[in-house]
Structures are given as C-alpha cells and as structure tokens.
Specification:
The complex is a heterodimer of chains A (about 600) and B (about 180). By secondary structure, chain A is α/β, with parallel strands linked by helices. In chain A, helix 17 runs antiparallel to helix 18, helix 18 runs antiparallel to helix 19 and helix 19 packs across helix 21. Chain B has about 180 residues and is an alpha+beta fold. In chain B, strand 3 and strand 4 form a beta hairpin. Classes of the chains: A alpha/beta (about 600), B alpha+beta (about 180). At the A-B interface, helix 1, strand 10, strand 14, helix 17 and helix 23 of A face helix 2, helix 4, helix 5, helix 6 and helix 7 of B.
Chain lengths: ~600, ~180
C-alpha cells in the first residue's frame, strides 16, 4: 500500500450521499492526499450523517459524526496534531470509551445488519474476509441436504419479515415438495412502504449477504432461477446488487455448478416501476411477467404455481439476510433470541420526531418504549411523544399509553397495528392523527390496483370523508360511516393492500378519537396541521418588520412597512395557510392556530 | 400538456436496439418502458408505437403497464426534474411546503400542471425514497437535498437554476429572496 498509512472511511449509503458524503470525501482528499480512502455502506446512524472514520498512521482511529464543510477544519487540525480533539463531533475513538452517541449501535443486536456499514459493499473480498459465503460453503462441503437446511431454518423458527410473518421454513417446505421442472426463488426488495428503508440499507450496504441468503433458499427449495425485484427508486441498491452478482459469478458462487457441486442457480435483477401493491407476492409475480401488478387469487399459492406457472418462493430481503447467520450459528442459537412465537431480531427504520433516527435492529421482545428511549434517545423536541406509526399504510398508530407493548408479531397485532416491514415513524404533539390517516388513505387509494370494488371505491370514500373532516366540514355521521366502511373493505378485498388499508383509520379512531371529535365539533386541529382549521396571524409585539415573510409568501397576502413592526398583517381572505411564513420568521412572530 | 417544445425526437434504430437487448416477449414490457423513459424522461407516443410494432407485446398490455406504474409518464418532462419525497416521515415534517414553495418560484399555478411554462423544471411527487431520517428530502436531478424547509427548497432551486442557466418564471423572476433581503 502506498501512502502514509492513514485510512479514511466515509459512509456512502443513499442517506450519506444525500447528507453530503461526496463533498466531504472531496474535501478530505485535498487535505489528506496521502491517505487511503474507503467507502462503506450506511452504518444506520442516519442522524449522524455524514460519518467519517479516520485511522491515523499510528493506528488510532476516530469515528466522527455530522461532518460537514464547516466543522471539517477542526477535524483536519486534530488529525494533523495541531488542535484539540473536537469532542462534540466524536462518536467513538479507539483509545477511549465510547461516547453516548455510540451506544446507539452498541445497544442493538445486529444479525441481519451484521455487515452493514462495516464493509465496502462492492468488495467481495471484504465480504469473504468477514466470513461471507461460509454458510453456502458449509452446506455444500459438509453435504447438508436441502431438507437439512429447511430443518435448521425451522428450528430457528424465523417468520417472514415482509410483514405478514409467515414461518419461512414452512413456506420453503411447500415449494420443496412441489412438482416442477424449474423452480424460482424471488427476493422481494420492493420496499414500497413510505417510511421504511431497511431493505434499501441491506441491498446497498451488504448485497452479498442478501445474495448468500438467496443461494441458501434456492438450494433448500431446489430453485435454479432467481429474481431480485428491487425498487427503481433505489438506484444504488440496483447498482451494488448487480456488481455483487457479477463478482459472485466470477468466484463460481453463482451460475452453473456452484463451488463445484451439482447445484446451479442464477439471478436476474428486475427493477420495480413504482407500485406499492407489487410488494404483495402475486402482484409482484404479475409484474415480473410484464403485466400490470395486479394480485391473483390464491390458491394456487405461488409455492405451487408462481412466476410463469412454476413453483416460486418469494422471500423478503431481511428474511434472506438472516439465513446465512442461521446456517453458520445454528437454528437453536437464533431461536434463543426473541419471544416464544417471534424469534430473532427485527430491523426498524426509525424516523420522525425522534432525536436519533436511523436503522435499528433489536431482539424481538424489546418494548417499543425501549427502542424509542434507549436507542432513539426520546423526543427530538421538548414535546412528549404521542404515537408511533408501525407498518406504514398497512399498519396502525400505537399511542404512548401502549409504548410498553413488546415487539412480537402477535402482541403488535393485538393493538390493531401490524409489525409490517419495519417502518417506525414517531410523532409528537405537532402531528395531527386525522391528517395522518388521511395521508395513508390517499396513498392506498392511489396505489389500489382497482381489481376489488371495495378496495378501489371504499378507500376513495374513506379518503373523501377524512379530507372533509380535515377541512372542518365533517360530521359525527362521517365518523360512523368510516367505522362501517373499514370492516367491509377488509373483508371484500383480495390482497393484503385492501385487507389492511383501513388499519390507519381504525387505530387512530380507536386511540385518538378525541382528535377526530375536535375537528368535527370544535372545528379545531389540535396538532395545528389541518390547513382548513388553522389561521395564521402576526404577533405584533414579536414582529421586527423584517419583511422576510412577505418575500416567501406564495400568495402575496402579507403586507406592511419595512422595519415598522406594527404595520404587518396577513390578509385572511387570501392566505392559504401553507406555513411558509412560520418557517422563515426568525423571531417566531407568526402564530398558527 | 402544452409544452410541445419538450417533445422528444425518437430514433427508431435506438428503440430497435433496446428490443434486441431486452427481448420481444411480453415479460420485457417493463424493462423496455424503463429504457425509453430513461432516455427521454417520459414515454413518447412514437416509441410506444415502435415497441408495439416490433415485439410480441400488444398495445393493450403496453399502455396498460405504462399507465399502471407510477414511474412512467406520458407527458414530456421539463429540462430539469425535481422529485419531492412524500414518504411518511417527509409528510409529517412538512413536505407539502416544499411543493408550495417550489411551484411558487416556478410560477406553476394550475393544479393539473407540474412543469414550468418555459419548460425549465418539472416538480414531481414521489413515494418514499428511503432517506427518512433526513426528512424532508428532495432531489434535483440526481442530487439529494436533506432536512429542508420550504424556504430552503426555494434557495436550492434558485442556486441550481443559476448553475444550469435556467430562468425561473415565478415570483421575482426567481431572484433569490435572501439577496434582496441583504440589499434592504
């Protein structure tokens, strides 16, 4: 290796790049032209992006968070031995105990995410150095039969992480026993839930683990062909997974006679085209076949008759990422983690009104409160947290009174929400639960494929009623209609989309009924969100007359004389309550209520 | 869509090239449309017709697929594309204000329009792009901008317009509100 022995590692996942990682790398390259630069996937501490790990020539290493153009000189001076250690940016150093920030990672149990952020996702060598492809080697070299693999996964008792929680080994057993000259294994990376990014992080941060999971699953069910169905919105995931496929083929880990055995399997990438319903397995199959992604009636189940009419297993990215660990460490070790009926760990994408958002992997059986407080660090503001939304548009809102609910498929179902794929969006008092329900119904209504009448029209009616309530035009009868529609839509829909679409409405009505009533009876939005129910006024005593609100107002409804605070007014007949003025007002002189 | 000037010129040889690489069978419908959209930013009618004529995909399937998936658009796109993320995290943190703000400087007032009258920019809503911890987020082209307020979105757009020499037809002709503030 040339250079001076300094190694600089920058987190370059999608979120790192969005936060400015390429610019940070460029600047560091100018400052330390001798250093060796490495890129790694997202470590999952999204709230600390951009993250940079710098190892000095003497071997001491330092992990810095929130690195940007402005604070970089401090870090540069420190590494040149010219300045004090910028402690407020430090996450971890090799010669010191970890900072509180680093506990975000140390408190987690990382199985699916074991390599994410630890290696360069485009390097098969680094993956192998961390024990990658040991599981498939073990299976082939020790002569484990497909049944042995299924048995190990059965002992682990891992349930599908895509949302429904069906035991993976049972599903595999169906396909193993199914008749067919060709069988398919599909990796479902169509992570369409707004608020979820677990699969993205895995695919772009550790693509080889997903690939190895696919190899093991294919071996178990006897599949020779595979598809990785990845959302087109994740270009980096598509690129890195494609690179992983090429490298694995070169290493004879993919293709004909894998590792010299008679097991042959190859994978093609199919890019999704932006349809939430394609996360549903039969819709996904239709999409692979080049059709509109509309669900099909089951049975026949895909395990018997799937893509192109052949037996097909569809597994979620996170499920597959756990499989190599299970084979390496044994199903029993996996089953030790978790609760009686939900084994192992679950990855969540923590976001919203939380201090420390990002990727979180914890054992099943942790409580929601533990995740929010011990890892998330609690509320980002001084307002207390009021709810978490789990499972995206198919899930529900869990109120703070139920934050002690265990993370367990059945315990979460009992609240009316679902585990879902792992989106966890946190809300405080500044969120409106009616608006949130409206947001999700608008989403599901748009994404409904239109096949089932109740889903197609029922969700539209729900959205209309919720919009009416948000605009302050709702009646108590509308609330009753929503409650009547919900079970009908669930019962009369073919697939998971319609069957779960009313969940956000039902759970908010159950736990936040007072907010609905405030909208209907008092014409008031307690969260201060619904535009039809708030007005913006200027607090004269706080106004400085700077006129910035006037410049940003999109409808020119704010007038006054420059530097004369008492002259500024908002013309209510024109104001659209967009809130731009509140955002730009420095002295907080605009009230939205 | 009124922007006739943004219509793409389709070269039949290019379409034929995609068909040769991606296949003629019905399962190639989505990848073919993706190739077309990648090249032109939308699906020009001419390209669609060429696919129908030269593959086993019939018009009903092709248009069915094109109108089903959110990724595809049948209208020409502006010279620059802005994607505003409307995932849950972005929504609860005020993604709507980004749209209001961007449309304002672009002078897009008609709700059914998403492209500025001079064809400079198109503002599109997208479902979650998966950067939830940096919400709200928007993309101008490939570049992502994190943790935005409505005003920030406007500032980034004004800056971007300068670097690519586009004129913003909205309020103040796209003059940076900040710079005006400094003058006063």
């Amino acid at each position: 290796m040339s250079g001076n022995g300094m190694v600089i590692t920058v987190g370059e996942g999608t979120c790192g790049i969005a936060a400015g990682a390429p610019e940070v790398t460029e600047l560091l390259k100018k400052r330390f032209p001798e250093a060796e630069f490495k890129a790694v996937g997202c470590l999952g501490m999204c709230h600390q992006e951009v993250m940079v790990d710098i190892t000095n020539p003497d071997g001491k290493s330092y992990l810095w968070g929130n690195v940007g153009k402005k604070n970089m000189p401090k870090i540069v001076r420190f590494h040149r031995g010219e300045g004090e250690i910028p402690e407020q940016l430090l996450i971890r150093s090799s010669d010191e105990t970890e900072t509180e920030k680093y506990q975000y990672l140390t408190k987690q149990t990382r199985i699916a995410l074991r390599n994410v952020g630890q290696l360069n996702p485009t390097s098969i060598e680094q993956f192998r150095a961390r024990g990658g492809y040991n599981a498939i080697e073990k299976v082939i070299k020790e002569g484990m039969t497909p049944e042995d693999v299924i048995e190990e996964v059965k002992i682990a008792n891992i349930r599908g992480r895509g949302g429904a929680g069906f035991p993976a080994a049972i599903k595999w057993g169906f396909a193993r026993g199914a008749e067919g000259d060709v069988k398919y294994l599909v990796c479902n990376g169509d992570e369409g839930d707004p608020g979820a990014f677990m699969d993205r992080s895995l695919l772009e941060g550790d693509p080889h683990t997903v690939l190895e999971g696919m190899l093991l699953a294919a071996y178990a069910i006897g599949a020779s062909k595979g598809y990785a169905y990845i959302r087109a919105e994740y270009p980096l995931a598509v690129e890195y997974f494609g690179k992983a496929l090429d490298d694995a083929r070169q290493s004879r880990l993919l293709g004909n006679n894998i590792l010299g055995s008679d097991f042959s399997f190859d994978i093609k990438i199919k890019e999704g085209a932006g349809a939430f319903v394609c996360g549903e397995e039969t819709a996904l199959l239709a999409s692979i076949e080049g059709e509109r992604g509309m669900p099909r009636i089951r049975p026949p189940f895909p395990a018997i008759k799937g893509v192109f009419g052949k037996p097909t297993i569809i597994n979620n990215v996170e499920t597959l990422s756990n499989i190599p660990w299970i084979i390496n460490n044994g199903g029993a070790a996996y089953a030790k983690i978790g609760t009686e009926k939900s084994k192992g760990t679950k990855v969540f994408a923590l976001a919203g009104a939380i201090k420390r958002g990002g990727l979180v992997e914890v054992p099943m059986g942790w409580t929601i409160r533990q995740v929010l407080e011990e890892i998330g660090g609690g509320s980002a503001s001084d307002r207390p947290l009021k709810a978490v939304q789990l499972g995206g548009p198919s899930g529900g809102c869990i109120p703070d009174s139920l934050f002690d609910t265990e993370i367990d498929y059945d315990a979460i179902n009992a609240t009316g929400a679902i585990m879902g794929s792992g989106g966890m969006v946190v809300m405080d008092g500044k969120s409106c639960m009616v608006d949130l329900a409206r947001y999700f119904l608008e989403f599901t209504q748009l994404e409904s494929c239109g096949k089932c009448t109740f889903c197609r029209i029922g969700t539209l009616r729900m959205k209309e009623l919720l919009t009416k309530i948000c605009e302050g035009e709702g009646t108590m009868e509308d609330i009753a209609t929503l409650e009547e529609l919900a079970p009908s839509i669930k019962q009369a829909s073919l697939c998971g989309l319609g069957q779960t679409a009313p969940n956000p409405v039902e759970t908010t009505l159950k736990y936040f009924r007072d907010e609905y009533i405030a909208h209907v009876k008092d014409h008031r939005c307690p969260g201060g969100v619904c535009k039809g129910l708030i007005t913006h006024t200027i607090i004269q005593k706080d106004c400085t007359g700077c006129s910035i609100c006037e410049r940003y107002c999109p409808v020119n409804c704010i007038t006054g004389e420059l530097k004369k605070p008492n002259t500024w007014v908002i013309d209510q007949s024109v104001c659209i309550n967009c809130g731009m003025c509140v955002e730009v007002c420095n002295p907080d002189a605009i009230l939205a209520a | 869509m009124s922007n006739a000037s943004l219509e793409a010129t389709v070269d039949p040889a290019q379409v034929q090239g995609w068909i040769t690489t991606l296949g003629k069978e019905p399962s190639a419908a989505v990848p073919l449309l993706q190739a077309v959209q990648r090249a032109f930013g939308y699906l020009p009618r001419k390209a669609m017709d060429l696919i129908v004529e030269n593959t086993d995909i019939n018009a009903s399937q092709l248009f069915g697929v094109a109108t089903f998936y959110a990724q595809f658009r049948l209208d020409p796109v502006g010279r620059n594309l802005i994607k505003v993320c409307h995932g849950t995290a972005c929504h609860v943190q005020g993604a709507d204000r980004l749209n209001t703000s961007l449309r304002h400087v672009l002078g897009i007032t008609d709700e059914s329009e998403d492209t500025a009258s001079n064809g400079s920019y198109t503002v599109e809503d997208v479902a979650c792009i998966g950067c939830c911890s940096l919400a709200p987020v928007m993309l101008i082209g490939e570049q992502a901008f994190p943790n935005l307020k409505g005003a920030d979105a406007q500032r980034h757009l004004v800056k971007h317009a300068k670097t690519v020499s586009e004129i913003l037809p909205g309020k103040d002709g796209g003059e940076n509100p900040k710079s005006k503030e400094n003058k006063s």
